Amino acid sequence: MRDATEDTPAGAQTVRRAVAILRLVACGQERGVRLIDLVRMSGLNRPTVHRLLKTLIQEDAIEQDPETRRYLIGPEISLLGLARTRRFPLQTLADPYLSELADQVGDTVFLSIRHGHDSICIGRRTGRHPIQVLSIEVGVRRPLGVGVSGVALLACLTEEECAAVVAANAARLAVLGENPAEILARVARARTSGIAHAPIGLMQGTSAVAVPIPGPEGSALGAVTVTAMAERLAHDNFPRVVERMRIAAQAIARRHAEIAARR
């Protein structure tokens, strides 16, 4: 049975706003997101955000931690996602190459994709080194440009497209303490070098590097990232790791093209 408001501009706007709030809450993962940050990132006023959250909580799409008062993705969203367990074919075809790369470099390997204005981690494989840097979890959603994977993905866009994405994320970047101009500078360096490198990673004493997985006409299918203790991504070992990453990214791209050609 359809609601008469579904086809009205106001009804469509409410749906878009609710989905936008869901995306922002998803960024918080198990930590959750504060109401004040949802207001700042969404650009909506506090009563509107609170009203949307109340409705989403009633539908089990969002839940609120009784102690921290932060909002988290609810069980209904997780259950809905089970209906499409094979939604990310790139994850399946890339898995053996990620496992091999993790074994070769000895450190943690991540697979990320672009979704709208975000980068999302859809795969992670740990290496054999006794100390692994698990900087992010599978499912982490971040504005493009936050983290080396997002920089690598942005570097495959035109300068105009890249600037538009960063501008669209301005409010969220401000909440995260990120400077749009600095992100654009990182992207420019990555576009020149072919890699996105953070000598100082998200965690103290760590480092990270990402390379794009090439797609058709210069686009990126995704990005492969390696995180490690800083000394393991320094000096003579750094070029070796990057070369292994590039080989893996090219292999994933070739396999993807082979599968696409059969369809």
TrEMBL record:
SUPFAM superfamilies attached to this UniProt entry: GAF domain-like, Winged helix' DNA-binding domain
Source domain of life: Bacteria
Domain HTH iclR-type: 12-75
GO molecular function: DNA binding; DNA-binding transcription factor activity
Pfam family, one: IclR_C
IclR-ED domain location: 76-258
GO biological process: negative regulation of DNA-templated transcription
Keywords: DNA-binding, Transcription, Transcription regulation
Protein name: IclR family transcriptional regulator
Source organism: Bordetella genomosp. 10
